[in-house]
Amino acid sequence: MPTDGIAARRSFAETVVREARDLALEYFGDRGRLQTSLKGFQDFLTAADGAVEALIRARVAEAFPDDGFLGEEGGGGASDRLWIVDPIDGTANFARGEPYWCISIGFLSRSTPMIGVIDVPMLGETFAATRGGGAFRNGRQIRVADTPSFESASIEIGWSPRRPAEHYIELIREVMQRGASVKRSASGALGMCWTACGRTDAYLELHINSWDVAAGLVIAREAGAVVSDFFTAEGLTEGNPIVCATPAIAPVLLDLVGQRTKVLRPA
Ligand code: IPD
Ligand code: CA
């Protein structure tokens, strides 16, 4: 895809995410409008998720009518030019009034993640990257941490009921045994941004969906992280494991998560 097409879409994504942020904040500030429900065990949904996704979907259709769109709430399918959107990642936090949530907009060209824009409204932070162009937070370039070993590493391990709790607990045990501190903050998209800017050293999860990681993959890799090849096999539609880590600790984590196939080195 020509670089001007990518540049135009990056600029569009950064504009539309601001409009989406304003709408999400209207809901966040008015608990009565949330209409929180459960899609399944520990799988929260609020009225904001649908409204924010509908807004972004409509703006994409106006600006790039031939592009495809896949959203967590409204679905969608494969396309050579595909937007992948998580309207609110960290919905459980959002539903409880906790500030750790974000809006995630990714763009893929022929299955290659090209653009990632993730906005964190309650922190006033926007992470953005284009493949080959570096990763930025509020316009300043970011890099992964240079933590030398597990003994001083901080690692986030995401969880959902889509995989057995025993597997999650076993993974925590394996990582802690190597000396790392383990946390879970309940937003996969933000977990990858935190690794990208050095606040953590890795984000792992045994299964995650494409809308959770499409934008974060570009941001993390452009910031120097090693990431697993998420879009391999049926990753787009069925999800996959994710490993996103600094180069120093990635090999062990890739081994633990069992993603020994293709790995994408830092940009
Ligand atoms: C979830 C969050 C969570 C991750 C789950 C996701 P949601 O998305 O990213 O951190 O562990 O796999 O499903 O429900 O907050 O949009
Ligand atoms: Ca999500």
Write the layout of secondary structure elements.
Elements: H1 3-28, E1 37-40, E2 43-45, H2 47-63, E3 68-71, E4 81-89, H3 91-95, E5 102-109, E6 112-120, E7 125-130, E8 135-137, E9 140-141, E10 154-157, H4 165-177, E11 181-183, H5 188-196, E12 202-208, H6 210-222, E13 226-228, H7 235-238, E14 240-245, H8 250-257, E15 263-264
Parallel strand pairs: 3-4, 10-11, 10-12
Antiparallel strand pairs: 1-2, 4-5, 5-6, 6-7, 7-8, 8-9, 12-14, 13-14, 13-15
Bound molecules: D-MYO-inositol-1-phosphate and calcium ion.
Describe the structure using short key phrases.
alpha+beta, binds D-MYO-inositol-1-phosphate, globular, binds calcium ion, single chain, 267 residues, 7-stranded mixed sheet, 36% helix, 27% strand, 6-stranded mixed sheet
Name the poorly predicted regions: none
Output the helix-strand order. Answer: HEEHEEHEEEEEEHEHEHEHEHE
Strand order of the largest sheet: 3-4-5-6-7-8-9
Separation of the first and last Cα atoms:
18 Å
Helix-and-strand structural type: alpha+beta
Average pLDDT, to the nearest integer? 94
Number of strands: 15
Task: Let me know the largest β-sheet.
Answer: 7 strands, mixed
Radius of gyration: 17 Å
Bound compounds, each kind once, are:
D-MYO-inositol-1-phosphate, calcium ion
The dominant shape is globular
Number of helices: 8
Helix content: 25-40%
Strand-residue proportion: 25-35%
